[in-house]
Amino acid sequence: QVRLAESGGDLVQPGGSLRLSCAASGSDISFKAMGWYRQAPGNQRELVATISSGGITNYADSVKGRFTVSRDNAKNTVYLQMNSLKFEDTAVYYCNTRPTYLPWGQGTQVTVSS
Contact at 8 Å (CB) between 96 and 34? Predict the structure, then answer.
């Protein structure tokens, strides 16, 4: 059974940092392009960062320079380092392939609040 498990979300103050993890089981993601997505209340899910199987990264303009996506293929895991967090980064964060075709995980809640 394929499963994506996101973790690392928390309540953080503006300007703070978090590192999210996405561990895949039941599917080898090492040869797949992966993406981090987020969904804020009332909004559609949006793509914020991608990483190719070879490590090439791309970012949405809203997070460029603040977020860094990486992967550890030996651990079948993708990470999202988030720095200089803003109120508008508050959302549930998910990972999936890019394009998406695996079942969505539960996501991890990131709340930026003072």
Answer: yes
* Identity at 76, one-letter amino acid code: N
Q: Rounded distance, CA 32 to CA 34, Å?
A: 6
CA 30, 9, 15 angle in degrees (round to 5)? 110
DSSP code string of 20-79: EEEEEESS--TTS-EEEEEE-TTS--EEEEEE-TT--EEE-TTTTTTEEEEEEGGGTEEE
Q: One digit per residue, pLDDT tens: the chain, 114 residues?
A: 889 999 999 999 999 999 999 999 998 999 999 999 999 999 999 999 999 999 999 999 999 999 999 999 999 999 999 999 999 999 999 999 999 889 999 999 999 999
Question: Chain-centre distance of CA 21, in angstroms?
Answer: 7
